[in-house]
Design brief:
Helix content is about 40%, strand content about 25%. It has helices at about 5-20, 20-30, 35-45, 65-90, 105-120, 175-180, 230-240, 245-255, 285-305, and strands at about 50-55, 60, 95-100, 125-130, 145-150, 160-165, 170, 195, 205-210, 215, 220-225, 245, 260, 270-275. It is elongated.
Length: about 300
């Protein structure tokens, strides 16, 4: 039966062989001498071989021990070199960084920021695409996806870091309110003309905050579908129907009377911006630093807007 040799045991054996004593090996490894002696004994027992000849005055490797040391030493050095290289990649802010941003809001929020980041870190090779694929984009060998969602974020194997919250409102043009009246209950949107999405936000943008927490999704009469917040805003101003949009984005049109905010018993769920990546433990420094910068910049914007 083949013996199992773990790396820690081999490191202990190598340290003892190099230092010429159990005490020397123990000091090099910062381990109790008794643990080192026991580790060597267990290794010899597994191999059913004597690796070290011990006496009261000295110790030396047996032929089997010398063979093991000769073969294991370069392997351990290679592993240490690999570990050092991998650790260096985690620490250094360099190399390729592949990003996906949501259409429209992504370039508006992050275009200048990512350009500044590239200037600060010239060894970064940035590739940035814009689409609404969200989590799916991470399967295309990307490092980081910025997604915008409403309501509860779906469970997934990816790590989500919250970047910003954008309050939303249900709005409509005065002509729409004159024709259909001002709804007070969210269930009324099932029969009212609504501007919804084709696939963005999974085609379910009409979500509201429950009084006891959580979100409620309403099946609305989506007779006009777009995948663009700007298109939805323009359609609402034109009088196509009711829309649920970022309150901040609508504010100029609400201020001049071209849009009216609809007060409901349950407020519209806000839009949430998340940075999504695949693994928290081994997140490279280049990705972490960019996410930190995004979070800081968006936090400052939110404070100013507030």
């Amino acid at each position: 039966m083949r013996a199992n040799m773990d790396l820690n045991t081999l490191r202990v054996f190598t340290a003892v062989a190099e230092k010429g004593s159990f005490i020397g090996g123990a000091k090099a490894l910062e381990m109790p001498t008794s643990n080192v002696s026991r580790c060597i004994s267990q290794l010899e027992e597994r191999l059913n071989l004597q690796l070290i000849e011990r006496s009261t005055r000295h110790m030396k490797l047996t032929p089997a021990g010398q063979l093991l040391y000769t073969r294991v030493k370069p392997l351990l050095e290679s592993l240490e070199q690999t570990e050092a290289e991998l650790t260096s990649q985690q620490i250094q802010i360099k190399g390729p960084l592949r990003i996906c941003l949501p259409n429209e809001i992504g370039p508006a929020l992050f275009g200048t920021l990512i350009a500044e980041f590239a200037l600060q870190h010239p060894e970064i090779e940035i590739s940035c695409v814009t689409n609404l694929s969200g989590l799916e984009s991470l399967r295309d060998d990307l490092d980081l996806a910025i997604i915008i969602t409403r309501g509860q974020l779906d469970d997934s194997d990816y790590i989500a870091r919250h970047l910003a919250t954008f309050p939303c409102s249900v709005v409509a043009a005065p002509t729409v309110l004159a024709r259909f009246g001002k709804p007070t209950r969210i269930e009324q949107f099932a029969t009212l003309p609504c501007i919804t999405t084709v696939s963005a936000l999974k085609g379910l943008p009409w979500q509201f905050i429950k009084k006891k927490g959580g979100f409620k999704t309403v099946a609305v009469n989506g007779h006009y579908r777009v995948n663009s917040g700007e298109m939805a805003l323009r359609a609402a101003v034109a009088g196509i129907g009711f829309a649920i949009l970022s309150t901040q984005a609508c504010q100029p049109w609400i201020a001049d009377g071209r849009l009216c905010e609809v007060a409901l018993e349950q407020p519209a769920a806000p839009l949430q911006l998340f940075a999504i990546y695949s693994n928290r433990r081994y997140l490279p420094a280049k990705t972490r630093v960019l996410i930190d910068l995004m979070q800081q910049r968006l936090g400052n914007m939110t404070e100013i807007a507030g």
